[in-house]
């Protein structure tokens, strides 16, 4: 069963994130006519002109399934987008192609959160980011971060290695202190001089900032063992989604600023993975859609014909097109997910310099294992005390 203490923590995280939302009002958003997502590269920042049928789906892999050199290229592609000219109209004021995504996610705040739109809207958004990365030399599918693998000590995940995403912010404004994203400015929704992180936990022995334990794979399987789309949407958004955002803190803790931190995309890709996993285990209702269109409303007024709004990044698209990852959005959605990394796999282990590590030595930043499974923080503390 799911840890009740962790559920209570994520409920508090949900309250904090809801408080960060703008007032969504009480009216159903007006529905526009579909603008067509294929072709017309000049009207939208991104579009798709490939095959409409999905015959060879790409496989999105966990970040640590890639070699250190591949991870380097992925990070460099993100940095490249931060230098690439905006593709949105000049009056938006976006300084880069990367900031285009920050702007659009900010504009979609009430449209894409605490509503039925949450999974499919982000599905399209991730696909567009994947497409943008391809203009900067990243031709692989978008990676995900399997935080369930790191659940008992997420701050020890190798994803925070200074070679890639860096770690926590420092005392000077919670700015990312190390790695390629240190000292990177943020433009939206208000300018600030750096991307901020502020891990919310504290090691009781040392006082060092850590991330509180998150949901394990077993807990995640239990969580998605529900029968309806509305139930799985609420479970995924309210618990693991909100919890990871809140635990990383800083820009990630507010939906209006969260996309400034590039870890956003790997986190949301994992949320999408668990939604697709629910679909695969519930084929009878896999493509159903229901729930509310106004944040936190109890109305069940969502319809598959509702439009997902992308504010110039992509043509507004019917929800029904984003429910299917095997040919949806005119064929632009054509992907599956890997099975993630195994507990005994070397994929989760690298030295501080990013070189493969043969055992659990000084450079091993993943949670230690016992008998092939990640051990709990309590077990880890007990082992350290011996």
Q: How does this model look, in words?
A:
There is one protein chain. With 386 residues, this protein is mostly helical. 32% of the residues lie in helices and 5% in strands. The strands form 4 sheets. The chain has a two-stranded parallel sheet with strand order 1-6. A hairpin with a 6-residue loop joins strand 2 (201-202) and strand 3 (209-210). Helix 1 (4-20) packs across helix 7 (229-248), helix 5 packs across helix 8 and helix 7 (229-248) runs antiparallel to helix 8.
Topology:
Layout: H1 4-20, E1 58-60, H2 68-83, H3 97-107, H4 109-112, H5 118-134, E2 201-202, E3 209-210, H6 217-223, H7 229-248, H8 263-281, E4 307-308, E5 317-318, H9 319-322, E6 335-337, E7 369-370, E8 373-374, H10 377-385
Parallel strand pairs: 1-6
Antiparallel strand pairs: 2-3, 4-5, 7-8
Helix pairs in contact: 1-7, 5-8, 7-8
* Termini gap: 30 Å
Rg calculated over all Cα atoms:
20 Å
Oligomer: single chain
Helicity range of the residues? 25-40%
Order of helices and strands: HEHHHHEEHHHEEHEEEH
Q: Count up the helices.
A: 10
Low-pLDDT windows of residues: 7-16, 21-42, 344-386
Q: What is the approximate shape?
A: globular
Secondary-structure-based class equals mainly alpha
Q: In percent terms, what proportion of residues is strand?
A: under 5%
Within the largest sheet, what's the order of strands? Answer: 1-6
What is the mean predicted local confidence, pLDDT?
A: 82
Total strands: the figure is: 8
| Largest pleated sheet | 2 strands, parallel
């Amino acid at each position: 069963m799911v840890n009740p203490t962790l559920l209570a923590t994520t409920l508090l995280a949900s309250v904090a994130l809801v408080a960060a939302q703008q007032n969504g009002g009480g009216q159903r958003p007006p529905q526009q006519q579909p603008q067509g997502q294929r072709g017309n590269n000049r009207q939208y920042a991104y579009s798709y002109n490939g095959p409409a049928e999905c015959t060879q789906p790409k496989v999105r892999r966990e970040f640590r399934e890639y070699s250190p050199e591949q991870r380097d290229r992925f990070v460099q592609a993100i940095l490249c987008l931060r230098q690439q000219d905006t593709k949105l109209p000049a009056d938006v004021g976006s300084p880069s192609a990367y900031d285009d995504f920050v702007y659009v996610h900010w504009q979609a705040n009430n449209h894409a959160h605490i509503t039925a739109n949450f999974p499919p809207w982000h599905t399209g958004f991730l696909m567009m980011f994947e497409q943008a990365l391809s203009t900067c030399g990243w031709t692989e599918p978008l990676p995900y971060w399997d935080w369930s693998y790191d659940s008992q000590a997420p701050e020890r995940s190798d994803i925070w290695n200074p070679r890639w995403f860096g770690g926590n912010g420092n005392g000077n404004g919670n700015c990312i202190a190390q790695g390629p994203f240190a000292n990177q400015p943020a433009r939206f929704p208000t300018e600030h001089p750096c991307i901020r992180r502020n891990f919310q936990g504290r090691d009781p022995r040392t006082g060092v900032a850590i991330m509180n334990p998150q949901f394990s794979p077993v807990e995640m399987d239990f969580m998605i063992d529900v029968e309806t789309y509305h139930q799985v949407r609420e479970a995924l958004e309210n618990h693991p989604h909100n919890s990871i955002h809140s635990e990383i803190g800083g820009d990630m803790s507010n939906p209006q600023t969260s996309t400034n931190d590039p870890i956003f995309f790997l986190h949301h890709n994992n949320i999408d993975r668990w939604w697709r996993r629910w679909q695969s285990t519930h084929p009878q209702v896999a493509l159903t859609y229901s729930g509310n269109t106004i944040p936190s409303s109890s109305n069940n007024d969502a319809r598959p014909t509702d439009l997902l709004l992308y504010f110039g990044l992509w043509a507004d698209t019917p929800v029904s097109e984003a429910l299917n990852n095997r040919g949806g959005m005119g064929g632009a959605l054509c992907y599956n997910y890997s099975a993630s990394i195994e507990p005994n796999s070397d994929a989760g282990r690298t030295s501080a310099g990013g070189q493969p590590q043969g055992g659990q030595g000084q450079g091993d930043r993943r949670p230690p294992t016992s008998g092939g499974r990640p051990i709990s923080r309590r077990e880890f503390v007990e082992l350290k005390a011996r």
